[in-house]
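Progress report, Aim 2. The chain analyzed during this reporting quarter is listed below.
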Amino acid sequence: MTQALYLEGVLSAEIEILACNPCEDGRFAVRLSATPFHPQGGGQPSDTGKIAEADVVHVVIEQGEIIHYCTQPVELGAALAQVDEKKRNYHSRLHSAGHLIAHVMHLFGWQATKAQHWPNDARVQFIPLEAAEQLDAEMLQNQCLKYIQANFPTNLHQHGDGFREINFGDFPAFPCGGTHVAALGDIGSIDIQSYQFKKGKLSISYGVAEETE
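Predicted structure tokens for the chain:
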């Protein structure tokens, strides 16, 4: 099984290429001994980057294995794997922003039920708990800004059985296998783009800038 270096925030690593197989679509499926590439999942897009000189365009988990789809073949053996740092940081900020929104809404009596952290289509869905309070987009955005300015640190908890949790500051931990910022200040700001309650569910769409100043 491929060692998941991305869980430790690794962006570049010397790895061993174990397999490289051609695909019908012209790409090549590459399997590594260890990988800094986050595969698509948990509402987060996959990393991209390079393995040796080959561009990595998509990474997925298939039948329990992490597969890297590359634009050209790579030779088996030792190589350098490098993640596109700009894109990783953007995805991490989107993912952390979604978690922060969930934390803030939970303080006001709303339970997150599902989320996705896609560029241009990031959203979190909630159901009201018994003591749910009413907010609006502006109130939520201001509450998030307060915690971003407080710059709560990110705490990762990797359990021995593979179970992983994340939280910020003293917020309760959520199960998560994605990548995140080191502290909330790294998010920059969150733009609450829509705040809609329909059929007993609240859907909140949001975005962050692709780069922070």
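The mean pLDDT is 95. The first helix runs from residue 85 to 107. These observations will guide the mutagenesis work planned for the next reporting period.
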